[in-house]
Amino acid sequence: VKEKILSLKSNERFISFEFFPPKTDAGFRNLLARLSRMLALNPLFITVTWGAGGSTSEKSLDLAATCQKELGLTTVLHLTCTNTNKEIIDDALSKAKSNGIRNILALRGDPPRTEEYWTPNCDFNNAVDLVRYIKQQYGDYFCIGVAGYPEGHVDGSDNSQQSIEKDIPYLIEKIEAGADFIITQLFFDVDKFLNYEKVLRSYPQLSNIILIPGLMPITTYKVFTRSTKLSHASVPDDIATKLHDASVDDDKVKSLGIDIIDDIITNINNHTDNRIRGYHFYCLNLEKAVASIINKSNVLLPIMDLHESVDNNDDAIASD
Ligand code: FAD
């Protein structure tokens, strides 16, 4: 991933997509068909999520291997390191390597829902431990990404912990341990992202780091409110009002959603002087919204006209 990003021309922007492994075989087949069509959008890479504690390990590895080997996509496998054991991590890294996967997004993972807070295990307590472990076991074989939080990371429901100043020393630790790029948590407040970028760049260790904003296309009002709540992403008043007023009209929400994300991309592009080279879409395995954003965006300059290949079957996959 790092090599591909660094070899882009200065006026080129990339896009990347996050997918989660569907639960059923039928869902998996549907996703592959969709993924093949999404190749036309020309993502620089795709990422495959990892269920907390390794709960989706087999399916995540299956999907990642298929994307890398069969579809020829540069694939980033997410990997979490808490509430799991070393064998699961060793197995995942070794299978990733044997399937030609060269990129890992090294994450801590969320605490389990049943516990107020989890008990750290002795091998891995934070994402940095996983970054170090991968480096120790595999040297430079894997290009490693880590997570960043434009509004600060939140553990559980305690918003008081949300502060970028608290996270930055740990982010630096992850970079110094060998991480090559950062993908951010989703956000809708572009000013918060721009401030985050500015603060990060003021640290010498982060001044040149590849920082990839994570964006979630808005598909329905319900998904939007649920996602912002779960991710603790704040929503500027104008966006909240527009979407709330349109909430009963799905088509209106979708169309506003495209404009909102397009504005965010334009704003970032205009204020970061070529330092932000691409955008990562939390596309929730859906194709249409992301295709519409890319087709609308002057920054991402339509990579291909997708209208013909976009069907109306988004919900079938989303509900898998
Ligand atoms: P860390 O970097 O370990 O940070 C977690 C918290 O601990 C932060 O508050 C940080 O300030 C603090 N901290 C860090 N290091 C230390 C230290 N050494 N000492 C004390 N405190 C420290 N979850 C999944 O389960 N599966 C996924 O596939 C997945 N994909 C994600 C993709 C992206 C792009 C993002 C942004 C998140 C993803 N998550 C995923 C969620 C992620 O696992 C959670 O947000 C998790 O709570 C934190 O992970 P982290 O890697 O940021 O942890």
Features:
single chain, 320 residues, alpha/beta, eight-stranded parallel beta barrel, 43% helix, disordered C terminus, binds flavin-adenine dinucleotide
What secondary-structure arrangement, pairings included, does this model have?
Layout: H1 2-6, E1 14-19, H2 25-38, E2 45-48, H3 57-70, E3 75-80, H4 86-98, E4 103-107, H5 127-138, E5 143-148, H6 164-176, E6 181-186, H7 190-201, E7 210-215, H8 221-231, H9 237-245, H10 250-271, E8 278-282, H11 288-296, H12 314-318
Helix pairs in contact: 3-4, 5-6, 10-11
The structure holds flavin-adenine dinucleotide.
Flavin-adenine dinucleotide binds next to strand 3, strand 4, helix 5, helix 6 and strand 6.
What is this structure, in a nutshell?
This is Methylenetetrahydrofolate reduct. By secondary structure, the chain is an alpha/beta fold.
Can you list the strand order of the major beta sheet?
A: 1-2-3-4-5-6-7-8
The geometry reads as globular
Largest sheet: 8 strands, parallel, barrel
Q: Determine the N-to-C terminus distance.
A: 29 Å
The percent range for helix content is: 40-55%
- Ligand names: flavin-adenine dinucleotide
Q: Give helix and strand order, one letter per element, not per position.
A: HEHEHEHEHEHEHEHHHEHH
DSSP helix count?
12
Overall mean pLDDT stands at 90
Strand content: 5-15%
Q: Segments where pLDDT lies below 50 for 5+ residues?
A: 304-320
Tell me how many strands there are. 8
Structural class: alpha/beta
Q: Give Rg in angstroms.
A: 19 Å
